[in-house]
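agent: user wants the full assembly modeled, not chains individually. Plan: 1) parse entity lines 2) check alphabet per entity 3) run joint structure prediction 4) return tokens. Steps 1-2 passed, two entities, 805 residues total. Proceeding.
--- entities ---
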Amino acid sequence: MAALGLVAAALLLSSCDGLGGISPIFPTPVSPNGQDIYDLYKGISIPAIVIFLGVELALLWVVLRYRRSKQPVGYVPPQVHGNFWLEIAWTAAPLAVVLAIAGYSFVTLLKDFQPPTNQQMTVVISGHQFGWEYRYENGLVVHQEGTLAGDVTPFVVPVNTLIKLQFQGTDVIHSWWVPAISGKTDAVPGYDNVSWLKISQPGSWRGECAELCGVGHSTMQIIVQAMSQSDYDAWVKTQLATQSPAASPSPSPS
Amino acid sequence: MAATTVLPRPKNYDDTFFKPISLWLTTTDHKLIGIMYMVTGVLSFVIGGIFALVVRLQLSQPNLKIVDAETYNQMISAHGVTMIFFFVTIFLTGIANYMVPLMIGARDMAFPRVNLLGFWLVPVSIILYYSGFFTGGALNAGWTGYAPLTEKIYQAKSLGVDFWAMSLIVWAISGIMASTNFLTTIVALRAPGMKLTRLPLFVWAQISTSILLLIVGAPLAAAMILVEFDRQLGTQFFTTQGRPVLYQHLFWFFGHPEVYIMILPGFGMISEIIPVFARKPIFGYMSMVAALFGIVFLSMTVWAHHMFTVGMNPYVEGFFMFMTMLIAVPTGIKFFNWIATAWWGSIEFTVPMKFVFGFLATFLIGGITGVYLASVPVDTQLHQSYYVVAHLHYVLFGGSVFTIFAGLYYWFPKITGRLLNRKLGEWNFWTLFVGFNGTFLIMHTLGLEGMPRRIATYANQSWATTNLIITVSSFLIAFSVLLFLINVVRSWHGGEIAGDDPWKGNTLEWATTSPPPPYNFERVPPIRSFMPLRDLRESGEHVAEPEPVKA
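--- prediction returned ---
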């Protein structure tokens, strides 16, 4: 019974881990930094799945083969106290694997996680309890006040434009996360935190605050909407017309 | 060897539980203190579990309002604090308090009265924390209590954060006392012949745990004192005008080693239990010890991997990533050595051994997902999502809690003199194994899909089915814990009498009676290896069998 359960468990575990590895679940990345994270995730999954299956199968073999009922009557196990070279081997092998993973990760880290210098525009994003504020260089401000249903004012960006995102905190720490674009960036009071995006296709993507920030935490929803350059220019024009001169709370776009 | 006459045990100790309350309140016996630690831990487990069930009910479907967001935030915080500070750490301190002196052939801990004080600070700490609920609301910022959310201006109505901070200060003092006591005991009170190279691996694990807690307990207290300065004296350490990230550094300098404080004793138990039931000595004793200290060192160099999204220099992040991944190496050594110990063995799948294999099968997953999380770019995607919740439960539940169950089923006969019921134990294991994996395995996918942790509710319909499955499975865990509690209560009263050495153990605690007398050993057996009891059995020498005690 024990064996059966472990077989079932191992199958279940392996299949699910496999799903995570070549995930249909992970949202399809639309920004190069998100794509790099996704590729890295898949890269780590190769040794991860091999090690997972190898060790679980070894455990299964031990459970099935070396149980007392499978051993001859009066069997006395060999009294082995260790094996120097074997122990060296399973110190060195994992070391090589993690060094490779760390190296690959570090390359991606240096590539995507430094403040960009060749950005085509900059947006300052500040988090507050409970919503986001996006300040464009042209003076435009989008107020994305939180609602649980997620029908928030979209943060509009043009496609194929490298946009530097500069995060600021005004009260507690928030974390800006749109899974389809890239990882999280915290908006911390006291300094600017930097990230970037370059969305490849028009569309809308959802996200939300990922750092517990009070009772309204789950309402801090995010929508990022990417438009073609011409649509974006038109949008900016209407927004500027409605917003200036006094910065009134943002009307819904379009 | 001459037959030994066994001194009758004092009447008070005939039964391990039903003793006058005055004795429980004043005892300095490490065994009774150990039992009190363990009972406190199990009660906390039940309370923390109830918080978790409320959380799971709330998340079972989108847009539920079983509790409001403020209560929800208090529930998740109380669940985390209770499980980490009041259950796992406390329970493990208890089992070590009971077993370490026995395993090294000592009469008691080095400082019995410090032990007494250290234990009684625990209920003080627990009561302090829960007092928060009666002051307008307990801590509501998660168990990590990130500033500036814990600052006064964001907590206008309640004193919960103050009670949490005070509770953890007391807890840290208690932990430092216990650690000092363990280290002194192990250094100074070992029986003749118990060289360091003959220490049971559980004792080595306790040495490394104590070193860790001794080092990181103080920074935790420091962080809490600074939080209190901010809240009560108007300083600006972690406020919106101050340096909120400094709090995270201080907290995680404690918080990450705390993870190892909760798992290393479990590693020690696994290293004790596998050899006994596989009838083979532990494979690679010295590399097991070295791996423990490798983990101790590395665990103090990785704290900022909890902070990869706050915007650090990429080279600093790279350092923390690298050190974090290195932990996979000593952990891997332990894993391979455990498997090698069982290899070619003659394994008896008793309930403790089932929990050991349950631990190996699940902890592996926690270890592997830990490598994903260590990778900075991947972590920015998975951090603060349900992927992390799944990961941390794989290491703390699939890890620590499974080892705790293994240790309990293994040592319960020594502590009470009676075996836990095997049939109920099997049910306990299988329901826990299925319930645990049902709850946390698919939880990884929620994180990949973008569900952040600590949200009080959600509108996204595509998360609904997964969340429902998780909630149903979590009640299977609760059912399993119920079976366990029934088993403990029933077996303590009327379980099968265990005898001194029901498992044919390797270590000294099995040389004395079950339960041991107040003085532990009438005569400590000769110690010629790290398996003194097995040596004794194999040399054909007589192990003292006590006469049954008459009431």
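agent: reporting back. Chain B touches chain A through 93 residues (CB under 8 Å). The first helix of chain B runs from residue 21 to 26.
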